[in-house]
Write a structure and sequence with these properties.
The protein has 16 helices and four strands.
Length: 402
């Protein structure tokens, strides 16, 4: 570059810098901020930076990651996913096929958008804030209904299993009558069903659930629905003693439990078909909890008393301890069948080595120099019968002879 061109370039750059400074000052004066504030926002704000665009490699890695990690407890590392994607001929060919690449890109964008949409409120402060906002919504709606005679409802539930937000219903008007007439459920039951659906859907998406996941979701749905209809928050489902510990105690019953599925915990069902039937029943709402009226409860109690009188097992008794009626054995106690005359090793009296040595030295002083042998001194000490020796020392030596 010649000197003239370099000079013209420097002058143009200087002029550009002057113009930029003037524009920055104008923006600062217009919006009432400092010049440094404008420069900082212009260089760091996400609105002024170029948005990162997904590439074909991102879509391929996402597809391979979904394939490798689906249903696995421990996820594969990104280096392992990258190596596996390089060896996958179908995914590598998809980079050059516009139709296949579009499908992969759409799946990646849906996954990214789903992560943004799911609100994970898990700490106490956020849960309290959400509760205050929902209470405000309800107050505003009640005020609106009082002035305009409007009717409506809305369900608000947590979006993840980790959240502590409780189901909330906002609305007014004949909402209860509407749900009972067309769905045969009250609004709280619908809110619990909606909560179970949302948390499960956000957790696993649309993929096929594993056997253990279906059992866990079904158990949670049954327990939470029971807690809602009974009004007891920390209630435990008792399948073995369902009639006495659940139905008779809380005056509730299950409607729509599949006839070909035994009334046991979903976690104890090993047959996939039966678990699928039970899972679909609770998910669709065909199986649900219902309260007993006075007439139903009276009939139920009569049948329960008749079964008891007939000798039928209506309640499985709790297993008793093996040492019932006596003292409970400690963990360090002897097991049955051991020799009771033998003292446990932990209780055996230890021989004091220092006492033994003192005893030997005292008798060695009375012997001749020729009897310095330790073994002979010990024999002399055993047979000396000195009346001035301490009784404890004699006992220690006697134990050595056993």
């Amino acid at each position: 570059m010649s000197a003239l061109k370099a000079k013209l370039l420097n002058e143009a750059i200087s002029q550009l810098q002057i113009e930029q400074e003037e524009k920055v000052m104008d923006l600062a004066n217009t919006h009432g901020v400092t010049v440094s504030r404008v420069k900082k926002l212009a260089g760091t704000s996400k609105h002024h930076r170029k948005r990162r665009v997904n590439s074909a490699q991102d879509a391929v890695l996402h597809a391979k990651s979904k394939e490798m990690n689906e249903g696995r407890r421990y996820k594969a590392k990104i280096s392992e996913i990258r190596r596996a994607a390089e060896l996958d001929d179908d995914l590598q060919l998809a980079k050059t096929d516009p139709d296949k690449l579009k499908i992969l890109m759409d799946e990646l964008e849906e996954h990214q958008q789903a992560k943004k949409d799911v609100a994970r409120t898990s700490n106490k402060a956020s849960a309290m804030k959400a509760t205050r906002l929902l209470q405000g919504f309800n107050s505003d709606f009640q005020e609106l209904q009082g002035t305009t005679d409007i009717a409506g409802f809305g369900f608000f539930v947590r979006g993840s299993f980790e959240s502590s937000i409780k189901p909330t219903i906002v609305g007014g008007g004949p909402v209860l009558e509407f749900f009972q007439k067309y769905f045969n459920k009250d609004p709280w039951e619908m809110a619990c069903l909606f909560k179970a659906f949302v948390t499960t859907y956000n957790k696993v998406g649309t993929r096929k659930l594993l056997h253990s996941e279906k059992a866990k979701v079904t158990s949670r749905t049954i327990s939470e629905s029971l807690a809602r209809i009974s009004g007891v928050d920390k209630i435990r489902m008792n399948y073995p003693n369902f009639r006495t510990k659940v139905s008779a105690k809380y005056k509730v019953k299950i409607i729509g439990w599949p006839t070909d599925v035994p009334l046991v915990s979903p976690r104890d069902i090993s047959d996939p078909e039966k678990l699928n039937t039970l899972y679909d029943a609770w998910r669709s709402g065909s199986a649900y909890w219902s309260t007993m009226d006075k007439r139903e409860y009276k009939k139920f109690k009569q049948q329960l008393d008749q079964d008891k009188a007939a000798g039928l097992e209506v309640e499985i008794p709790q297993k008793g301890r093996s040492d019932i009626g006596g003292k409970h054995r400690k963990a360090t106690a002897k097991r049955p069948g051991e020799n009771d005359t033998e003292e446990p090793p932990a209780k055996r009296k230890r021989t004091s080595s220092s006492t033994k040595r003192m005893h030997i030295r005292e008798h060695e002083s009375d012997e001749d120099d020729e009897n310095s042998d330790i073994g002979r001194s010990v024999n002399f000490a055993r047979g000396s019968g000195d009346e001035n020796e301490d009784e404890d020392e004699d006992e220690d030596v006697d134990e050595l002879d056993d």
